[in-house]
Design a protein that fits this description.
Layout lengths: L2 H12 L5 H14 L27 H11 L5 H6 L4 E3 L6 H13 L6 E3 L6 H14 L5 E3 L6 H12 L7 E3 L10 H10 L5 E3 L7 H13 L5 E3 L7 H13 L5 E3 L6 H14 L5 E3 L7 H10 L8 E3 L6 H12 L8 E4 L6 H13 L3 E4 L18 E2 L2 E2 L8 H11 L4 H8 L6 E3 H10 L9 H11 L4 E3 L7
Parallel strand pairs: 1-2, 2-3, 3-4, 4-5, 5-6, 6-7, 7-8, 8-9, 9-10, 10-11
Antiparallel strand pairs: 12-13, 14-15
Helix pairs in contact: 3-5, 5-6, 6-7, 7-8, 8-9, 9-10, 10-11, 11-12, 12-13, 16-17
Length: 477
């Protein structure tokens, strides 16, 4: 048997027959070593790579250019310049799904890149699959940021499948990828099987009640994750209970971010139970969750039973001054070891500030809060005087008293309205139009504010359906 045949058989054993990617790599390597001629390629190879005459492509540069030609993708000059950097940042480069496929080939055997940042590149599900295949082969990348790429269910399935076998990744950012309750099951398997991940970011997705149950179980079964970000999702009320149960069952989780989920007081009660049971959680962020004094009171009391938490962020909640005091009082318990209490955006009073100063003298703790209400002079605007027309409050005028009010006011002003209206009544009908009536007021020296004119017209119109007003009430007897 020739050496060429032996080499081909060994390569076939290493490469998975179901992967088109492995076939491409096999053909490419064989050409580089000149073990098989070009006309003997397999018809099943989905990318026909041109023969390279250079020496073995250690950097993967030639391979990348060849794949780009085949896929019809414009090569990224930035990627070519930095593909041997330990930190490779390609965020906001507009790579797209085909571009992700192109860079995945040289990255499979890349030994230089440790941190890979692909944030915001519109990879979608297809691009996510390419990166997942690459990470099944690459054993050097430890940090991956693939956030804001609209991966959806297809990307979630591929990446979670990769996580069940990958033994290198420690940190992964999957934020903003349209993951929903339908995709939560993929993470259950990934979290259960993976034994290397330390940090996972699933924020800015669409997980809600059903996902809370699945993710709660996934968190409970994982034994390595230390930091988990689930902020900016849709965990509400009762669903938070299932999530917190899973968190409290985890003995490795040190930091959890549940901010901006809007779970309210019912969710706050679940958090209180979590604090009573957890012995490893160091950092908890529950900001922006519509927690009122009721939830604050429960959390404050729970702090007496927790001797692990170091940082509590509970700002931008409608706690009220009383709720803020309940939390501060909880931090003051002897068992509590919190060193940072973040109440940003929460208004407090002078008494709270005094409690804070006293606490900071006895404990090594920093308290951040909103404005102190007693530091501001609240100026009360004087009540606006009631608006008057013809000497009477406008609000009290109606169609039954408007003419009598005008008569009384004209007498006080010595305005002879009756004579004015008689002079305007050329046909001696004993009445004038609304327009003539208003003109008569002005001719007699009785001014009407422009802003009040619509009100006066409405009142006169109510007593003059034919646009005629009997002025006899104003004539001298």
């Amino acid at each position: 048997m020739s050496l060429t045949v032996v080499a081909e058989e060994e390569e076939a054993e290493i490469c998975s027959p179901e992967s088109g990617t492995n076939k491409i790599l096999k053909t490419f390597k064989a050409r580089q070593k000149k073990e098989i001629p070009k006309d003997e390629e397999s018809d099943e190879t989905d990318l026909e790579l041109e023969e390279e005459k250079d020496e073995f492509d250690v950097t993967g540069r030639n391979q990348y250019l060849s794949v780009c030609r085949t896929l019809g993708v414009i090569p990224s000059s930035y990627f070519l310049r930095h593909m041997q950097d330990s930190v490779l940042s390609l965020r906001h480069h507009g790579i797209g799904s085909l571009g992700a496929k192109a860079i995945s080939f040289p990255l499979m055997n890349n030994t230089a890149v440790i941190q890979l940042d692909l944030q915001d590149n519109w990879l979608e599900g297809e691009g996510g699959e390419s990166i997942a295949r690459m990470l099944k082969e690459n054993c050097y990348i430890t940090d991956l940021d693939i956030s804001e790429n609209r991966l959806g269910g297809r990307g979630a399935k591929s990446l979670c499948n990769m996580l069940t076998t990958n033994t290198t990744l420690k940190n992964i950012n999957l934020s903003g990828n349209l993951f929903s309750d339908h995709h939560a099951g993929y993470f259950l398997e990934a979290f259960s099987e993976n034994s290397r991940l330390k940090y996972v970011n699933l924020s800015h997705n669409e997980f809600s009640d059903n996902a809370a149950i699945v993710l709660g179980q996934a968190i409970a079964e994982n034994e390595t994750i230390e930091e988990l970000d689930l902020s900016w999702n849709f965990f509400r009320r009762g669903s938070t209970l299932k999530l917190c149960e899973g968190i409290s069952s985890n003995c490795r989780l040190k930091e959890i971010n549940l901010a901006m989920n809007g779970f309210g007081d019912e969710g706050a009660l679940a958090v209180a139970e979590l604090l009573k049971r957890s012995t490893t959680l160091y950092v908890l962020d529950i900001s922006y969750n519509r927690i009122s004094q009721i939830g604050a009171t429960a959390i404050g009391k729970a702090l007496d039973q927790n001797d692990a938490l170091r940082t509590l962020r509970i700002g931008h909640n409608p706690l009220g001054v009383a709720g803020a005091k309940e939390i501060l009082q909880g931090v003051g318990y002897e068992n509590c070891v919190i060193t940072l209490l973040d109440l940003s955006g929460v208004e407090v009073d002078k008494e709270f500030r005094e409690m804070k100063q006293s606490l900071e003298e006895t404990k090594e703790v920093k308290v951040v809060h909103g404005v102190v209400l007693s530091d501001y002079v609240i100026k009360v605007k004087p009540k606006k005087e009631k608006e008057h027309m013809f000497g009477a409050p406008v609000a009290e005028l109606d169609s039954t008293n408007i003419l009598q009010t005008i008569k009384q006011y004209s007498q006080e002003k010595d305005a002879a309205l009756g004579d004015v209206f008689v002079g305007m009544d050329k046909k001696k009908l004993g009445s004038v139009t609304i327009q003539e009536f208003i003109q008569g007021l002005q001719n007699s020296g009785i001014e009407v504010q422009e802003s009040q004119m619509p009100k006066l017209v409405d009142l006169l119109d109510a007593i003059a359906p034919e646009n005629l007003i009997n002025y006899s009430i104003f004539r001298s007897k």
